[in-house]
Write a structure and sequence with these properties.
By secondary structure, the chain is mainly α. The chain is 75% helix and 2% strand. It has helices spanning 4-15, 20-27, 30-48, 51-77, 85-97, 105-127, 132-152, 178-200, 203-213, 215-220, 225-251, 261-274, 281-299, 303-317, 325-341, and strands at residues 162-163, 169-170, 173-174, 253-254. It has a two-stranded antiparallel sheet. It has a two-stranded antiparallel sheet with strand order 2-3. It starts with a helix and ends with a helix.
Length: 342
């Protein structure tokens, strides 16, 4: 929380005139900086890589969106949910079930996003009176129920899943080519992240943070904690469904593993690695985990062991995730300088 002293310092700094690079950065919206960075990275990756490596990087980008959606609950609102793979899978299965009716890939992912949001909202309304550990366990149970339905509903084809999902065409461009699909995914994920970043900086984002930090005080200040948590759940479900839809188009196949509890745990690990309190923490954590697991799979027979060991070290040494490491190092250096000048 911000103390009165910190608030006074912030006001004094705000009154100081900006010069040089500071003035230039003040004129550039943060969303524009993000957009430029994404374009530069996408251009580099799209021009340097192809084949299986580009396929892997596309997978990492999709999981980055999924991790960011999950962090809406854990990092923004302080709501524990261990069944977010349910909405990822709902989005994926929506694309699979509509593959013979919807040719436009954008329309397919938007429909998947809508249905995932509706399912998430329905669950949040039913369980909104429950909090804490009970709510977290119910999210896991609900996810497992949806997973079991894939084996009980004949149209979902059990463990065989739904194959033959086409990437389709967009503006006359065949998305079957990995390069074309890379740009398709990058554009959609970038837009989604820009929207999430805008929401994070809005009054609703501030309300979610207030609910996370102290729900009792937030309620006393006029924030409807129940409504904030419900809408946060809807938002997280919608973007998780979008990620699932992109994964279905990417792999051309939907399987029950997309709703399994193991994936729900893995996406939480992604958030922990990067840092839940940072907007870009889940993005970095997802990309790192996907790449590290892939290369460890070639180097060792037990990649999950080494990933778990690395996660243990990160949680113990850097509880705030890898993105909090520079700030931690800077604080340690500053403390040493203060000691040296005494």
């Amino acid at each position: 929380m911000t103390t009165p002293t910190q608030a006074v310092v912030a006001i004094r700094r705000a009154k100081q005139p900006l010069t040089g690079l500071q003035a230039l950065r003040a004129k550039v919206p943060p969303s524009l900086e993000v957009l430029v960075a994404c374009i530069v990275v996408a251009l580099a990756v799209g021009s340097l890589f192809d084949g299986s490596l580009l396929f892997l990087l596309t997978t990492a980008v999709i999981y980055a969106l999924f991790a960011s959606a999950t962090n809406i609950l854990f990092g923004w609102t302080g709501v524990s949910s261990f069944g977010q793979a349910a909405y990822f899978g709902v989005g994926a299965y929506t694309v699979g079930l509509t593959k013979d009716f919807i040719d436009n890939p954008i329309l397919a992912v938007l429909l998947a996003m809508l249905i995932a949001a509706v399912v998430a909202g329905a669950y949040a309304l039913l369980a909104s009176r429950i909090t804490g550990t009970e709510f977290a366990m119910l999210t896991l149970i609900f996810g497992q129920i949806l997973w079991l339905l894939t084996f009980r509903v004949p149209e979902l084809h059990g463990e065989n899943g739904i194959p033959g999902i086409s990437r389709g065409e967009l503006l006359g461009v065949n998305l079957f080519a990995d390069q074309a699909f890379w740009w398709y995914v990058v554009v959609i994920v970038t837009i989604a992240l820009l929207i999430l970043r805008r929401i994070r900086g809005s009054s609703f984002g501030a309300a979610m943070n207030a609910v996370r930090d102290d729900p009792i005080r937030a309620e006393a200040l006029g924030v409807s904690v129940r409504s904030v948590r419900i809408w946060a759940f809807v938002l997280a479900g919608a973007f998780a469904g979008l990620a699932g839809a992109l994964m279905a188009q990417h792999q051309g196949l939907v399987t029950p593993e997309m709703l399994a509890w193991g994936l729900s745990g893995e996406v939480i690990v992604m958030c922990l690695i990067g840092g839940m309190r940072s907007f870009w923490g889940p993005v970095i954590g997802a990309i790192l985990l996907v790449l590290v697991k892939h290369f460890l799979l070639d180097a060792t027979s037990a990649p999950d062991f080494w990933v778990g060991l690395a996660l243990l070290v990160i949680v113990l040494v850097v509880p705030g995730g890898l993105l909090s490491l520079p700030k931690k190092i800077a604080g340690a250096v500053q403390r040493r300088r203060k000691v040296a000048t005494r």
